[in-house]
Automatic annotation (TrEMBL), chain A:
InterPro entries: BP-dep_ABC_trans_perm, MetI-like, MetI-like_sf. Belongs to the binding-protein-dependent transport system permease family. The chain crosses the membrane at residues 12-30, 69-90, 102-121, 133-152, 181-203, 234-255. GO terms for biological process: transmembrane transport. It is a multi-pass membrane protein. SUPFAM superfamilies: MetI-like. It is found in: Cell membrane. This is Sugar ABC transporter permease. Keywords: Cell membrane, Membrane, Transmembrane, Transmembrane helix, Transport. One of its GO terms (cellular component) is plasma membrane. It comes from the Bacteria. The keyword Transport applies. Residues 65-255 form the ABC transmembrane type-1 domain.
Automatic annotation (TrEMBL), chain B:
InterPro entries: MetI-like (IPR000515), MetI-like_sf (IPR035906), Sugar_ABC_transporter (IPR052730). SUPFAM superfamilies: MetI-like. Pfam families: BPD_transp_1. This is ABC transporter permease. The chain crosses the membrane at residues 12-36, 70-90, 97-123, 151-175, 207-225, 259-278. Belongs to the binding-protein-dependent transport system permease family. It comes from the Bacteria. It is a multi-pass membrane protein. It comes from Erythrobacter longus. The keyword Transport applies.
Length: 268, 291
């Protein structure tokens, strides 16, 4: 095809639309509050790292990041561990009620978190897990496990059955085959599934805010509390926002080759 | 691929079942329980039967929220799907430029929902935001915290900003799976750009497009955090969508009974859509396998 300028123009305009709000946030995080509220500047005149310093030295801020990372990591590990065998079962075998089960799992991905906020609060309070990392990690399994099963099943269908059969004929037991041969083969799929578990757990606010109060409060919840308090500290808030974008950007970079296929849930 | 029947596969599914039962069935049963009872002070309950359902179905609050919700979902689908396809087709196909575009495009998807709300808050405010300031300087009166129309425009723009990339990425995956022989054939036939799109790209994107439409419909149907942070459901109730209304009812006013009944009806609607989604997907999987 001949080169046409129109696609590049569309792309450029779209990227501009995507990046402008982010740009505004980033430069805001380098401005002192007086400049944010007092002057309208496209570039920080009074460049400061003070906002970041506040976050990185104040435990009530940086512990939010630590808490978020703890439950996100827990959630990703739990989701993958239970989803791997299940996805294998769905991709390889026919068993009683398999279709119904698969659909039921999917409905959990579709369930509005708002519906679950109150019952979760009561459930985790009654088993004394309120305000712990594991409570948030388990709550996020509600949508991450079905998603992981779904993505992994899509990837596993792409692995020919003959590989399983050959391994079993060669005398591999199922667990050994699964951990030594099968899991390395679907490495990209696991990476993509982990990426999505990370992402959805990282961005979620409603459940993590409902289930925590002090000890496990995630950074996102800390930010909303700051919004509701009087005397908005826009600079610090913007800096916190920038810091929450960074982990996502790093993770995207690592899975960039697979994102498109991953967002298609392994089904292209 | 031919699957073999093996009932022992249930053992492989068991961990998922236990975990999801804990995080879905038990809470769901509490909701069902509450929806039939009235509570006093949170510890005394008595049976009211279907009273909450009747009351809710008669109340304007629910229907208004549902109306706003449907309008919102339709608007964003009408904008995001065509725009997403357009962007997917405009993406460079290979090289470092393609990687860069992918990473940049995926960026909004990885931003925590409340930060998305905050970004747009500071971007659209007429005192400190770039957009708000520019629009005001151009002579339009624009204030999303006061004016319902402005609030809607801002919430829709935010959602388009946040989620169009998802549609693009899905379509991009679809477009990339088209063998280059198809394009070469089209070139020999001197097909126009439109017919390449209509007869090659669109059919190939059908599968992912279905996923995109349904994912976007469902996610927009339960949108909570972004408008909550941006407008708090206001001005008035102008941007109070179903989830915002539900959380107000359940955690704000602690009306357990009505909130639970609301939850169940809400969930049933989503379940219905999910079922359609699932059936369509299975059908398109089968159709593809049959090709």
């Amino acid at each position: 095809m001949t080169k046409r300028p129109l696609p590049s123009l569309i792309m450029l305009a779209y990227l501009l639309f995507l990046l402008l709000p982010i740009y505004w946030l980033v430069i805001m995080s380098f401005k002192p509050n007086s400049e944010i509220l007092g002057a309208f500047t496209l570039w920080p005149q009074d460049f400061t790292l003070g906002n970041y310093r506040t976050i990185l030295t104040d435990p009530s801020w940086y512990m939010g990041f630590v808490n978020s990372f703890i439950y996100v990591a827990m959630n990703t590990v739990i989701s993958l561990c239970v989803a791997l065998p299940a996805a294998y079962a769905f991709s390889r075998y026919r068993f009683m009620g398999d279709n119904h089960l698969f659909f039921w799992l999917l409905t959990n991905r579709m369930a509005p978190p708002a519906v679950f906020a109150l019952p979760f609060f009561q459930l985790y309070s009654s088993v004394n897990l309120f305000d712990t990392h594991i409570a948030v990690a388990l709550a996020h399994c509600l949508f991450n496990v079905p998603l992981a099963v779904w993505i992994l099943e899509g990837f596993m269908r792409g692995v020919p059955r003959e590989i399983d059969e050959t391994a079993f004929i060669d005398g591999y037991s199922f667990p050994r085959f699964f951990t030594r041969i099968f899991i390395p083969m679907i490495g990209p799929g696991i990476g993509v599934a982990a990426f999505f578990c990370f992402m959805f757990s990282w961005v979620e606010l409603l459940l993590s805010r409902t289930l925590t109060s002090v000890d496990a409060k995630p950074i996102t919840a800390i930010m909303t509390r700051t919004v509701s308090a009087s005397g908005l500290d826009w600079g610090v808030l913007a800096a916190a926002g920038v810091l929450t974008i960074i982990p996502g950007a790093i993770v995207i970079y690592f899975v960039r080759g697979y994102i498109a296929k991953g967002f298609a849930l392994g089904r292209v | 691929m031919e699957k073999t029947t093996n009932q022992r596969a249930w053992f492989l599914v068991l961990p998922v079942l236990i975990l999801v039962a804990f995080s879905s069935i038990i809470p769901m049963m509490t909701v069902v329980n509450y929806s039939f009872q009235d509570s006093f002070g949170g510890n005394e309950f008595f049976w009211v039967g279907l009273e909450w359902y009747r009351e809710l179905l008669r109340s304007e609050r629910l229907w208004d929220a549902l109306g706003r919700q449907l309008m919102f979902s339709s608007i964003i689908l009408l904008i995001e799907i065509p725009l997403g396809i357009l962007v997917a087709l405009a993406m460079p196909k290979k090289g470092w430029l393609a990687s860069l575009c992918l990473v940049l495009i995926a960026l909004p998807l990885l931003i925590p929902y409340n930060v998305v709300g905050m970004i747009w808050q500071v971007f659209a405010r007429s005192d400190i935001g770039l957009l708000g300031r520019v629009v005001t300087d151009l002579g339009f009166s624009y204030n999303y915290t006061q004016d319902a129309v402005d609030a809607w425009v801002t919430v829709v723009a935010m959602d388009v900003w946040h989620w169009t990339s998802l549609v693009s990425l899905l379509c991009y995956a679809g477009v990339r799976s088209i063998p280059s022989a198809y394009y070469q054939a089209a070139e020999i036939d001197q097909a126009s750009r439109w017919s390449v799109f209509r007869f090659i790209e669109l059919p190939k994107m059908r599968g992912v497009l279905i996923i995109a439409v349904l994912l976007r419909f469902m996610d927009s149907f339960m949108i909570y955090t972004e408008p909550f942070v941006l407008t708090g459901g206001g001005p008035g109730n102008a941007t109070t969508f179903l989830s915002i209304d539900l959380v107000k009812m359940a955690l704000g006013q602690f009306d357990l009974g009505p909130a639970a009944a609301f939850s169940l009806m809400y969930f049933l609607v989503i379940l219905l859509v999910s079922y359609v989604f699932y059936t369509v997907m299975i059908a398109s999987d089968k159709a593809e396998a049959g090709q």
